[in-house]
Amino acid sequence: MTSTASQERKALVSALRSVTAEAPTLCEGWSAQDLALHVVVRDSRPDLMVGQQLPLVGPRARRALQTLRDAGYEALVDRVAAGPPRYFPQSLEPVDVAMNTLEYYIHTEDVLRAQPGFQLSERRRISEELRKRIWQHASLTFFVMAARKQNRRITFFSPGYGATTRGPAAAPLMMVHGAPEELTLWASGRAAHAEADITEA
């Protein structure tokens, strides 16, 4: 059975191939090509993410990034499709699922929902397996980070999946209702493009 991370990698590749290199994304300042480059670096050259900021190796890292970009959009998307090298930890399915299910889901939506004319009513439908995985992982990551960033106590409620509260006990309470994937987009800073209802306590 194909893992949720593998399914979402394929969805991301399909989304990237449906647009041009210059197409907008929900990642501020990033085109589709920028997003594809980010995924390739995260998959196979994580050293470049840090290296470009370091004084001694920064120029070399920036040249390596430019070489990847110069290969062209199609080549970058092909590398996204290929995934990480076999000797990388995330090539193992349990690690891939833990590291990449949310990453690929969010970035797929970053591409699709940023396109002109997109309507939430036309968003793609996801599997129940993926929805459960998103709820499980987001409860431990993005929901925690959203509460911390806003300095709020936030209850995330999703019918059929449950409720989880994150944030300082003494902080003002907020409730956010929606499907797990929509709550995840809201919590990851994409509130304007997510279908989530907010109730202030």
UniProtKB/TrEMBL annotation:
Signal sequence residues: none
Protein name, as recorded: TIGR03085 family protein
SUPFAM superfamilies, alphabetized: DinB/YfiT-like putative metalloenzymes
NCBIfam families xrefs: maleylpyruvate isomerase family mycothiol-dependent enzyme, TIGR03085 family metal-binding protein
Spans through the membrane: none
